[in-house]
């Protein structure tokens, strides 16, 4: 007779996400995961696979919670540019007040793993493509509604914002002058004028 799992895989995945987000992939050992999750090593392997598979599942979970929220914020009816300005401001403020310096899990994955880990790179790229598509759609709508001049390229502006957002997240990881983040945020918002 098959044994039932003695732990909640969803809760364990959430705890693994927290640990990987805090420490990164390389600095998190399997022993760290066993201790943090409170789950036996064999159960982790049986449920999630190895450390790498668990990391990818944690990154997927992160994307499931963050990407749709951005798309929803940008797809509301009415004027578009105020929603994009709020998103720019949110990125800047979150990065400035990220005092544990955890940053964004996607950006952390890009910096630590994407150059040498094709599976992690695919997830990072999928997230950035989703963000770019959401912004392009919103900016196209803004142009159609007369909020942006007709000569503005929604896709190019969306790509700039994706790069801006990721850069802000990287700067938020280090103890730096928050004035740099504030100034960059103001300049990015000014591009929408």
Could you please describe the fold and organization of this structure?
It comes from Actinomadura decatromicini. With 193 residues, the chain is mainly α. It has a domain at 57-191: Tetracycline Repressor, domain 2 (Orthogonal Bundle), CATH 1.10.357.10. It has 9 helices and no strands. The N and C termini lie far apart (66 Å).
Secondary structure layout:
Layout: H1 9-23, H2 30-37, H3 41-48, H4 51-74, H5 81-96, H6 105-114, H7 118-144, H8 154-171, H9 178-190
Helix pairs in contact: 1-2, 1-4, 4-7, 5-8, 5-9, 6-7, 7-8, 8-9
How would you briefly describe this protein structure?
Helix content is 72%, strand content 0%. With 193 residues, it is mostly helical. Helix 1 crosses helix 2, helix 1 crosses helix 4 and helix 6 packs across helix 7.
Keywords:
9 helices, 193 residues, mainly alpha, 0% strand, single chain, Tetracycline Repressor, domain 2
Give the low-confidence spans: none
CATH class of the domain at 57-191: Mainly Alpha
Envelope shape: elongated
Q: In DSSP terms, counting alpha (H) and pi (I) runs of 4 or more, how many helices?
A: 9
Please report the distance between the alpha carbons of the first and last residues: 66 Å
Give the tally of β-strands: 0
Main sheet, how many strands, which sense, barrel?
none
If you compute it from the alpha carbons, what radius of gyration comes out, rounded to the nearest whole angstrom?
19 Å
- Considering DSSP H and I runs of 4 or more, what fraction of the residues is helical? over 70%
Q: Which structural category do the helix and sheet elements fall into?
A: mainly alpha
Order of helices and strands: HHHHHHHHH
CATH architecture descriptor of the domain at 57-191: Orthogonal Bundle
- At the fourth level of CATH, the homologous superfamily of the domain at 57-191 is Tetracycline Repressor, domain 2
């Amino acid at each position: 007779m098959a044994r039932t799992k003695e732990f909640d895989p969803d809760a364990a995945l959430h705890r693994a996400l927290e640990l990987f987000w805090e420490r990164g992939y390389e600095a998190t050992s399997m022993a760290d995961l066993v201790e943090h999750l409170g789950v036996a090593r064999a159960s982790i392997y049986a449920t999630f696979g190895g450390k790498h598979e668990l990391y990818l599942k944690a990154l997927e979970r992160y994307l499931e919670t963050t990407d749709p929220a951005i798309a929803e914020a940008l797809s509301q009816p009415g004027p578009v540019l105020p929603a994009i300005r709020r998103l720019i401001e949110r990125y800047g403020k979150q990065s400035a007040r990220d005092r544990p310096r955890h940053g964004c899990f996607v950006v952390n994955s890009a910096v630590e793993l994407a150059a040498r880990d094709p599976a992690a790179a695919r997830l990072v790229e999928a997230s950035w493509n989703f963000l770019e598509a959401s912004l392009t759609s919103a900016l196209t709508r803004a142009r159609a509604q007369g909020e942006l001049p007709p000569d503005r390229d929604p896709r190019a502006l969306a790509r700039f914002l994706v790069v801006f957002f990721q850069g802000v997240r990287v700067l938020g990881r280090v103890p730096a002058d928050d004035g740099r983040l504030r100034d960059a945020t103001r300049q990015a918002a000014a591009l929408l004028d």
